[in-house]
TrEMBL record:
Its EC number is 2.4.-.-. It is an enzyme of class 2 (transferase). The keyword Membrane does not apply. It comes from Kutzneria chonburiensis. One of its GO terms (molecular function) is glycosyltransferase activity. Residues 7-131 form the Glycosyltransferase 2-like domain. This is Glycosyltransferase family 2 protein. Keywords: Glycosyltransferase, Transferase.
Length: 304
């Protein structure tokens, strides 16, 4: 019997990319029974929901949250639309992703191994190059290493960095602490036992929190390179507001999981790294430093 899988796509002014995402689903879902495609919209103003509803060849349903509530809230709203008792897994995916043929079945096979609760694909850029997506568990030492020598370089030296940047590490299937949340297939059992995604993280670190919380409950995250997803992404690399939100949420999550004193050391390491990049003239780092040092500058709500 084919595994029964549903897809949750969270959108916000996503009309320019959503069409290609939805067009990739029939081929991407070959080998599984695709029961539902739930498009959850964060109050788009560009016709995103109308575009989604036009894909009558797919089992699409749309949900309008009514405000820009963030990625975690969108996932939770989409999952709430599903009858989990009839499903084996749920794919959460960004609208700027495109599935490769048979990718869902490949990820679903990963989840047949006991203890594996989350399966993630190889992410590639639109030009086909590797998009580093795997992460190691956050530690003070890794934050300090990334501050001193940079995240890309630290990620290539053994397990020194949090971000895995060595291309050789992406050639083999292996477990990871967490991974970019652009495309994640989650088993229903892991989803039910881990619970809803944490909506206090408006954007960024929500996938980290979910993966680490799933691991706390005995569910591992597994990387499968033979499943490939094209992902555009990259907004946090160029948008100062998003970069600041990403950086602050990293520190918030570490403090929540590790306590005050380790979190203080982690905070200082992150401030050091972002300050060095800010002095080099990087606008995203300048915004991150301002948000780290001045809580009043931190984003509390997303644009609507």
């Amino acid at each position: 019997m084919k595994a029964r899988t549903a897809i949750v796509v969270v959108t916000y002014n996503s009309a320019p990319v959503l069409g290609d995402c939805l067009r990739s689903l029939p081929a991407g879902a070959e080998g599984v029974e695709l029961t539902d495609v739930v498009v959850v919209d964060n109050a788009s103003r560009d016709g995103t929901l109308e575009l989604a509803a036009s894909f009558t060849e797919l089992p699409v349903r749309t949900v309008q949250i009514g405000r820009n509530a963030g990625y975690a809230a969108g996932i939770n709203a989409g999952v709430n639309e599903l009858d989990l008792a009839t499903l084996d897994s749920v794919l959460v995916i960004n609208p700027d992703c495109r599935l490769s043929r048979g990718g869902l079945a490949t990820l679903q096979e990963v989840l047949t191994v006991p203890g594996r609760g989350i399966a993630v694909p190889r992410l590639v850029n639109p030009d086909g190059t590797l998009q580093p997506s795997l992460r190691r568990k956050p530690t003070v030492g890794r934050a300090l290493a990334e501050a001193v020598i940079g995240g890309t370089r630290a990620g290539r030296i053994g397990t020194l960095g949090e971000l895995v940047t060595d291309p050789r590490e992406y050639e083999r299937a292996a477990p990871a602490a967490w991974a970019t949340g652009a495309a994640m297939l989650i088993s229903v059992n892991a989803l039910l036992q881990t619970g809803p995604w944490d909506e206090s993280f408006l954007l960024y670190s929500e996938e980290t929190e979910f993966a680490l919380r799933a691991a706390d409950r005995g569910w591992s995250l597994w990387y499968e390179p033979s499943a490939v997803v094209e992902h555009i992404g990259g907004d946090a690399d160029t948008n100062p507001m998003l970069a600041a939100l990403l950086t602050v949420n990293r520190v918030r999550l570490f403090r929540r999981r590790r306590g005050f004193m380790p979190a203080l050391a982690y905070y200082m390491a992150v401030v050091l790294g972002e300050s060095a990049r800010a002095l080099a003239g990087r606008p995203t780092a300048k915004a991150s430093v301002a948000a780290l040092l001045r809580p009043s500058r931190r984003i509390q709500t997303l644009a609507s």
